[in-house]
Amino acid sequence: MATCSYLVQTAGTTTTLSLVGSASYVNCGQLHDYLKVMEQREGKTDLLVDFRRCTAVDSTILGILSGCALKLAKKTPACRVSFANIDGRVLEVVKNLGLHHIIEIASTPVPAASEAPGALNTGMCSTACMLDAHNALIHTHPDNENKFHDVVEALRAQL
After folding, report:
1. How many CB atoms lie within 10 A of CB 8?
2. Tell me: the pLDDT tens digits for 125-155?
3. CB pairs under 8 A, 24+ apart, for 105-113?
4. Are 97 and 144 in contact (CB under 8 A)?
5. Is the pTM of this model over 0.85?
6. Are 64 and 28 in contact (CB under 8 A)?
7. What's the mean pLDDT when you consider all of the chain?
8. Considering only the top CATH level, what class is 4-158?
9. Beta bridge partners of residue 47, listed in sequence order
């Protein structure tokens, strides 16, 4: 089973989320819940996702993050999601899915958190969470409809 740690730290108006390991639907249940609460916070809240120690991500994780970006952008004042320390295959997938149109890709490395971050518990996300994540990807970029249509239909059938 793929393992990942999700480390979070908030400083001022920015929450930093560090992905450590292979982030996927089998270990992102708590991440989804955490981001839902973060999206509802009053005031400005930006999310910086640090991929420095991330070895892989799947479409569910990217969908959760794109859904968060879409919701934060609608807040007043508008908030944003940024990806930092991302390269290689993970960056290629992010661009292939069009996430770079709604999520800022930091061009310079961002230093690791200076304080000890808190860790989220891991566990499989629900079918409803996976469905929301893939619908968010479809809303992120029109080309994603063809890529995830069958996945969305299969997930709907499970509900």
Report:
1. 18
2. 999 999 999 999 999 999 999 999 999 999 9
3. 106/48, 106/82, 109/52, 109/84, 109/85, 110/48, 110/50, 110/84, 110/85, 112/18, 112/50, 112/52, 113/7, 113/9, 113/16, 113/18, 113/50
4. yes
5. yes
6. yes
7. 91
8. alpha beta
9. 15, 81
